[in-house]
Amino acid sequence: MAQDIMLYWGSGSPPCWKVMIALEEKQLQGYKHKLLSFDKKEHKGEEVPTLKHGDIVVNESFAACLYLENTFKSQGTRLIPDDPAEQALVYQRMFETENLQKKMYEVAFYEHYIPKEERLESALKRNKENLIAELKLWEGYLEKTGKGSFLAGKNFSMADVVAFPIVAYFPRFHCPKERCPRLMEYYEMLKDRPSIKASWPPHWLEKPEGQDTLKNL
Hints:
It comes from Cirrhinus molitorella. This protein is an alpha+beta fold. The chain folds into two domains: 2-71, Glutaredoxin (3-Layer(aba) Sandwich); 84-206, Glutathione S-transferase Yfyf (Class Pi), Chain A, domain 2, CATH 1.20.1050.10. Helices cover 51% and strands 7% of the residues. A four-stranded mixed beta sheet has the order 2-1-3-4, with helices on one face.
């Protein structure tokens, strides 16, 4: 079953990492995979992530995660609950992670994406304010679910699969803990989960410390 699956991925890419966590949670260890180098632009010829299962090809990470859950529903961790209210919350948190990732990137990778001559201190300040507001939103979500809970309740779900790879950037890029104490508790609770440890970005293992671009948030 797993041998019929092929994943093209990049190390540290949140979209790739969430598909890899989903594969682990669905007990699909042993799938074929190819690590593509961002530095060598290898991902330009192949969309990342790309999940192939037999003749089926999925190029979008949310779609790939949902495809794995639906195709292997009875296998491994149940990532989408049956209860309509619980399901709605999982879907909402899942797709809200797009906002968190976008606002984190706009601060953490500002100098990477914006040419030097176009950089403005006022723009970076605004980006930081937007990210701080977004973090407050997620802090509120975790406060509501209660200590020791996951993003959408008491059970690990697809919301956690897609959120953790983004959350992991905050400690890596030295975000002050006081900015997001509940998110950091959540990170500590999940970082040793088997599916997350098994899919941890290899270059993060080689170099545990990342840039300090979130240090002054």
